[in-house]
Specification:
Blueprint lengths: L6 H20 L9 H9 L3 H16 L21 H16 L7 H11 L6 H10 L2 E5 L5 E5 L1 H21 L3 E10 L25 E9 L2 E2 L5 E4 L13 H12 L8 E4 L8 E2 L9 H10 L10 H11 L4 E2 H8 L3 E4 L10 H15 L5 H13 L3 H29 L17 H6 L1 H6 L10 H26 L4 H46 L1
Parallel strand pairs: 3-7, 7-10
Antiparallel strand pairs: 1-2, 3-4, 4-5, 4-6, 8-9
Helix pairs in contact: 2-3, 7-14, 9-10, 12-13, 17-18
Length: 533
């Protein structure tokens, strides 16, 4: 089948045709044959520069054994994840408000309008949908065929477990809680607005963000952990500041600055960043070599046979590996501390996030010159200005958020019970009794199976099967009813039986006549077709 020429190609064909007609009328070439590039541009109606560019792309494609691609197809798409964690928390709270307070289902349009008025949401509905999916929300069908926005069960369960642990400590154990996190700041970080005039320009902004500095710290209701500040210059060009903090640097910071200064028997709260979740004695997977699997089993004193294949070894490893043991958790447990991980996408449960905002605002107030040499001293001075009372206020604010989650999750269960999700399989047949299964077993087996429709006689076979079942039912009904009648009505029942037998006899005669006639016609047709070849 010839390839379809698109509109742009059709226009070029028409331009070439008009150019050839013009040369025909001129009774000779308008542009000499020696000027190939100019002649190509004249025939196709494009510029000579475009002809040169396409020729260059063709030479590169031939050298690399590839095809010429349309310019602009490999453009990097702008990421929609410019929304910060606080806006994501506001979105989650808005969804809870729709379910619990407003008692209605939050659609994308309703959420978009509410967020636009509440937090000045500046993005489109499509971006909002992508953000919801990145936060773990998804749509599921309800029995009423409406759609219900639901949170991932694992994240909701993680949050419930975290809140229960923190509430138990707050109400019963009274252990000190230390929150830790990492952030970043650029050397040119400044306020967005300032007082200025024609004579006084105020703060001048830089076109470049400048050098990025990585910050790590920990604190609680008693303030920052003493000597716990980690501040260093970024060496990575990646847009994600987490690339600068690897597991080695994190464990070194914890060992040298945090653990020696922690209060006794405290709870350390951290998020699930990759360098927070480095496993000890990590179990191999199917991507590892067979020798590595065998070595791991030997080191853990797990017996196996030498002739076992990789799938057998992997199943054994999966069965015996147990729960993962994280390096930082093991380190803190050795010093009498407990690690509690924040649920994903719940930075609102970490009060140090509020402290980051407070510190960065004070850095911006002092960072007038915006030079790399001064940002370190300005940052350290800003951390020293944070008081214990400010820490207590943000921790109490997070405790209120925990209580709201604790209450709203239980109200959410009540509301979600009204929207029962369609199951993937129907188990009602399992509740039926043995009598119901034996009464019409054959029809249950054939239920939902459509007969083949290659030939008409298959339909007659199916019809005869169901007719026999009906006849059996009628006979069972007759013999059951004849026991319950008196002698006057028995004669009428026998007459009814004779009529029933006669009816089905005539029906089967007609049915089998049509059935055998169909087979005969089909075989004759097949015979004539085969003989013609």
């Amino acid at each position: 089948m010839p390839k379809v020429i698109k509109s742009a190609g059709r226009e070029i064909v028409l331009k070439v045709k008009r150019s050839c007609e013009a040369e025909r009328d001129n009774k000779g070439p308008i542009i000499p044959f020696c000027k190939v590039r100019a002649r190509t541009a004249f025939l196709t109606g494009i510029s000579e520069r475009t002809v040169t560019q396409i020729t260059r792309e063709s030479n590169l494609a031939e050298a690399s054994n590839s095809k010429i691609v349309t310019p602009g197809k490999n453009r990097d798409r702008k990421s929609f994840l410019e929304i910060d964690d606080f806006d994501k928390c506001a979105i989650r709270h808005m969804i809870h408000t729709f379910y619990v307070v407003k008692k209605e289902i939050p659609t994308i349009h309703k959420l978009w309008l509410a967020l636009k008025s509440d937090i000045d949401f500046k993005y489109s509905k499509t971006t909002l949908r992508r953000v919801l999916r990145s936060m773990g929300y998804k749509y599921k069908k309800c029995q009423s065929k409406r759609k219900l926005l639901m949170e991932r069960y694992d994240i909701a369960a993680w949050r419930a477990k975290f809140i229960l642990r923190m509430r138990k400590n707050r109400l019963e154990e009274k252990r000190p809680v230390i929150y830790l996190d990492e952030t970043y700041i650029h050397a040119s970080y400044h306020l967005q607005k300032c007082w200025q005039s024609n004579e006084e320009p105020g703060v001048l902004t830089s076109d470049s963000a400048g050098t990025r500095w990585i910050i790590a710290h920990a604190g609680g209701k008693t303030g920052f952990v003493e000597n716990g500040l980690l501040l260093f210059k970024s060496q990575s060009k990646s847009s994600d500041y987490h690339d600068d903090m690897n597991a080695k640097n994190f464990i070194k910071w914890m060992t040298e600055k945090i653990i020696p200064n922690l209060p006794l028997n405290c709870i350390v709260v951290m998020d699930n960043a990759s360098y927070h979740c480095t496993q000890l004695n990590k179990a191999p997977t199917m991507s590892n070599l067979k020798a590595e699997m065998q070595e791991w089993l030997l080191n853990n004193s797990i017996p196996f046979e030498d002739y076992w294949t990789k799938p057998q070894l992997y199943l054994l490893i999966k069965k015996t590996k147990g729960d993962p043991v994280y390096e930082v958790e093991h380190l803190l447990n050795q010093h009498g501390h407990e690690v509690v991980q924040l649920p994903p996408y719940h930075c609102d449960l970490n009060p140090i996030e509020k402290i980051w905002a407070l510190v960065k605002r004070r850095i911006a107030e002092k960072n007038v010159s915006q030079t790399t040499s001064e940002i370190s001293s300005i940052t350290e001075a800003a951390f020293n200005t944070v008081t214990t009372m400010e820490w207590i206020n943000v921790c109490q604010h997070v405790e209120k958020i925990e209580d709201k989650y604790f209450e709203s999750d239980r109200l959410m269960d009540i509301e979600l019970d009204k929207f029962i999700i369609d199951p993937t399989s129907d188990d009602e047949s399992l509740d039926s009794s043995d009598d119901e299964m034996s009464e019409d077993s054959e029809s249950n087996i054939m239920e939902g199976i459509n007969p083949l429709e290659d030939h008409n006689y298959t339909k007659f076979i199916s019809t005869a099967r169901y007719s026999i079942n009906d006849f059996e039912k009628y006979l069972m009904l007759f013999f059951f009813s004849i026991k319950t009648l008196d002698e006057k009505h028995i004669i009428l029942q026998y007459l009814y039986l004779y009529v029933l037998v006669g009816y089905f006899s005539i029906f089967y005669l007609i049915l089998y006549y049509v059935y055998f006639r169909t087979i005969l016609d089909y075989n004759l047709y097949k015979f004539f077709i085969c003989s013609s070849f």
